[in-house]
Specification:
Pfam families: Ribosomal_L11 (PF00298), Ribosomal_L11_N (PF03946). The chain is about 35% helix and about 25% strand. The protein is an alpha+beta fold and about 140 residues long.
């Protein structure tokens, strides 16, 4: 069997188990000739257990209009908002602090994100999470 040729790779952040064919799915996949309803069914089935979170997906679209997708870990900002119990981060980071997370929570988030981060060890991953927290106005308690 010959390898399929890749036509495009599309990355979208979608709510787990609750995606619909409306934008952003339709606008991202429609121009490539993908049946959005088929993608939505497969995505929702794959992410049903993670409802309530935002799960990024990387959709590989082939020239014959078939597709495959890879689920990623939730965005660091979403995990930090959940850990701090916030709806959103600070509009003016460094001036307005909106929440606090513990060092243990940062470590847990870093472990969750490790497959998708470009870090060699847990300490480097934690530094990336702390950087994201800082930019969101969330302090890290020692």
């Amino acid at each position: 069997m010959a390898k399929k040729r890749v036509a495009a790779i599309v990355k979208i952040n979608l709510p787990a188990g609750a995606a619909t064919p409306a934008p952003p799915v339709g606008t991202a996949l429609g121009p490539h000739g993908i049946q959005t309803m088929e993608f939505v069914k497969q995505y929702n089935a794959a992410t049903e257990s993670q409802r309530g979170q935002v799960i990024p997906v990387e959709v590989t679209i082939f020239e014959d209009r078939s597709f495959s997708f890879i689920l990623k870990t939730p965005p660091t900002s979403e995990l930090l908002k959940q850990a701090a119990g916030l709806d959103k981060g600070s509009a003016t980071n460094r001036r307005e602090l909106v929440g606090t997370v513990t060092r243990d929570q940062v470590e847990e988030i870093a472990k969750t994100k490790m497959p998708d981060l470009n870090a060699f060890d847990l300490e480097s991953a934690m530094k990336q999470v702390v950087g994201t927290a800082d930019s969101m106005g969330i302090t890290v308690a020692e």
